[in-house]
Amino acid sequence: MPHAILANDISGIVEKIGPDVQRFSVGDRIFGQSNILSGGPDQAGLQQFCILDANFAAPVPLHISFDEAATFPVNAIASFIALFDSSGLDLAPKFLGHRVDYANEAILIIGGSSNSGKFALQLSRLVGFGNIITTAKIRSDRGQSLRDFGATYIIDREAADVEDQIRALVGDDLLYAFDTVNGAYSGGISHQLALSLLSTTKKGSLATLVRGEADPAIAATKTAGFKKNQILGVSDLHQELAAKFWMELLGWIEKGELKPLDFEVIDGLDAMRVDNLLDDYRDGRAVKKTHVHPWGLRS
Known about the structure:
alpha/beta, six-stranded parallel β-sheet, globular
């Protein structure tokens, strides 16, 4: 990608602050999400210095590293927007000043082992959902991990009866589903699995990260209707809600309510390794969260 500066999961040390910034001081360890949609290349991460909006950043907790902090911004805010913005599932939890109790409700997370899926599980637990159901490729080292993130039921996404297994748990009462992954994991671009499991007699909601139209045959069975929204998890596009996320994030991490993800590191601007990583994303291969240290600086 000639002339493009990539990356918007940012962590580092504050070198300068703007005239209206009060939350941070020079020398602070911070992390945040850059706004490369309208902020330009100065906000991208693969360079020695970049600019962050103070409203979309937080202090790095003392007990975690820069790299651990950098696992949060993009994927955590994407799941946060998908769950709580009106353009997503529009949940109204108590920690956002509402009184809705979800203890008797279920939520389905398609792709719980994805980076966004792991944060969706943790946020669903923070909301207080009684049943947090997720689909994932079952591996010997993964089941307990997803339960640690909040899953109450983990369904093998490759099982022939995956829909039947989930329906046995939710019946016709599922009102909330979040599809975090691409069509290869969710029945094609129609988001077939998540949509089919939503209630037919109550109006349910489906949030997605990937563009796709509802399968007309499945949509026709939803006699009470449904809401389906693709969201873009960029703080600058949801400023009021995102500001609440960044204000609360430090406390959630310090209390252990949100945990960082596993990650790998590319030391230095190794163009070949970065290109190979982007190819893996493009081709749908399993990818661990990967950070690039432009100057090989370890946190």
